[in-house]
Specification:
The protein has about 100 residues and is an alpha+beta fold. The chain has a domain of about 50 residues. Helices cover about 25% and strands about 10% of the residues. The chain has 3 helices and 4 strands. The strands form 2 sheets. It has a two-stranded antiparallel ribbon. A hairpin with a 4-residue loop joins β1 and β2. The chain starts with a helix and ends with a strand.
Length: about 100
Amino acid sequence: MLLAMVKGIESKLGRLPKTHNLPRPIDIDILFYDDQVISTSDLVIPHPRLHERAFVLIPLIEIAPDLVHPVNKHTIRALLKSVNKNGVALFGKIGGIKCTK
């Protein structure tokens, strides 16, 4: 149901189906759903690459720095410390972690 709702929003905003790795007007990812681990042909939760992406972790640390990833068991704070933040420009510190170049 959640996935269908997200796909509907993307469609209303102009996203065409099956536009992976191409420019698109919007891309909504479901990062977490409580502490559930879901893996189907249509949906993987937690998002399989969120732990590699500073542009995802930096905003996430503002709202949930101590959230524990249900698969790798690391907090968002710890995950952010381990990723390359180059190219993600912020001013100051977020969650006690310097995030500027």
